[in-house]
Amino acid sequence: MRNVYRATRPTWSQMGKAEWRVILIASILVAITGLLGDFVVDHKVLHMEPPGTLTAYSEVVAHGLWFLAETVAITLLCVLLINFYKNLNIGCYPTTFLYSFILPATSNPSGKSQVVGYCQVAPNTQSGEFEITGASYSWEAGHPNTDGRVRFTSSKVYGSKEEEETTCHIQFTVHPADAQKRFYDHGLLLFRLDKTAHRKADEGSGIYAGFLQATYKDAEGRDVNVRSEGYAEWYSNTKTSPTDLESTLRARGNGLVAQLEAMLAASPQPTLWEEMREKEKDYMEENDWGIKIPTPQSIALNPQLKPYIDRLLSQMLSLCGLQEPAIGDFKARAEHEARVNRYDTRVAYERELKAGLIGMVRETSLDDALSRRAETIKAQIEPYLEGDSLLDIGCGNGMVADLIKDHFTKDEVQLVDVKRYLPSRLRRQLSFTEYQEGEPLPFSKQFDTVLLLTVLHHSRNPRRLLKLAWGITAKKLIIIESVVGIHVLVKNAKYELVNSPIEIQVGYAAFVDWFYNRVLHNDVPVPYNFTTPEMWKSEFERNHMKLAHTIHLGQDIDIGPEYHILFVLQRG
């Protein structure tokens, strides 16, 4: 019999050390009967014979009968003890639990969904295993949607114990009739009794933290991971019909959802969640430089980054025209949605934050902030402009090119980007060409000055783009790039994370880049290809590019306060 009762029976710990006591008692009784058997026969049973009647034959018979009686008695006693032990194992079953999870958008065709459900545990006395039946229901408008019901079963249930923490593992399979409602058809459910300080400490309360793991193949054959945190509670020691459980979920569903919300917001978090997060590491992927990039959700919840992200959001939202208490409300929303969407896609999280800014951002305020950004960059690069022709690669809104266009011949200013982000007023004034990343630049001539202004980390292959830009440069290639790995301040360049490890700097830069380009703006590629100044200088040297100037600009842009460096590469 597997020890799942340790995880699924709320009162197990109150039973103390009953398991080893049963084994100890059985061992003592066997030892006692073995040691005292002959003594009892010789000194008690045989002494009951009348004097002179005791023979060798009767002595053998007495010993034989006692051995038989001893065998029967020990067998019966062991059966009783085994039954008692069995009742410790399965006496509380069947039992039913109720739960709530927030499934990520990667889990089902309908997108992210709040679900409530039940899980019934019953022992199979023939196989000695536990069997699970259960179902999840989409929770919509305060009611379980029976059309969204997904049933599941499991006969692979086991418990594990580490450092006094016992976890119930349920390897489940989605019912074939409901398979179209999930992208995955099997997975793993984990439940662990929640003993954290902010909730009831007594285990009889039956409060559990849950965690769902599943994986499936997408259309391109790549593995897609589904992860979700959940809440569960003990319901009854009976096997209840699905119809009755649906009624129970209607009555208690709001409470289950509220308990999950409270658990997500509480501190400390359940140990099960913390352990699973540590295993998952909250990384999206490595960038082109081999640097691991954390998800925006994990950055928002990182205690080391929280003060910086808090100031960042206050600053950027203020520049967008928001005021208190709206800024505070949005920051609370950002943290809440980060917890709820922790294992969802980046897109799901940004969609929730975009929804929180609807009607809040003043376009005139944002335009003013972007205009100041363009003016700052103009002042930084103006001393290095040279020649009659200009190519601005990754021009974005075109504001910088518009400010410096008078330095060049009128028809020799060319803008290029992967998408037309130019406002309508500039589309009539500046020549723009759309560029497909990965293809050669769509020009047959060189330009005297070429710009790559905070562009390279937006490229999926920044080193290739650098080579393409250098190949089309006649005189100067001017680069402003967001970098990480800054641990010494240079001159007047400010950087509030100068004393932070590179992992924290990467997280901050990634969040700034994501929030500015994906929440405040739309559809800007963000592959997060940040690296260190040393790596860029090494790349310049390897490709025989002459580095004429290196200027540390620091956190110079209020609307996008990454750490920037200006590199000027010169021909000849």
Structure characterization notes:
Helix content is 37%, strand content 26%. It is α+β, with helices and mostly antiparallel strands and 572 residues long. The strands form 3 sheets. An 8-stranded antiparallel β-barrel has the order 1-2-3-4-5-6-7-8. Strands 13-12-11-14-15-17-16 form a 7-stranded mixed beta sheet. Helix 13 links the parallel strand 14 and strand 15. Helix 2 runs antiparallel to helix 3, helix 7 runs parallel beside helix 14 and helix 8 runs antiparallel to helix 9. The protein is elongated, with a radius of gyration of 35 Å. The protein starts with a helix and ends with a strand. The N terminus is likely disordered.
Write the layout of secondary structure elements.
Blueprint: H1 5-8, H2 18-45, H3 56-90, E1 95-103, E2 113-124, E3 129-140, E4 143-162, E5 165-174, E6 186-193, E7 207-217, E8 223-236, H4 242-265, H5 271-280, E9 283-286, E10 292-294, H6 296-301, H7 306-319, H8 326-340, H9 346-356, H10 363-381, E11 390-393, H11 399-404, E12 413-417, H12 424-427, E13 431-434, E14 447-453, H13 462-471, E15 473-482, H14 502-519, H15 533-542, E16 547-554, E17 564-570
Parallel strand pairs: 11-12, 11-14, 12-13, 14-15
Antiparallel strand pairs: 1-2, 1-8, 2-3, 3-4, 4-5, 5-6, 6-7, 7-8, 9-10, 15-17, 16-17
Helix pairs in contact: 2-3, 7-14, 8-9
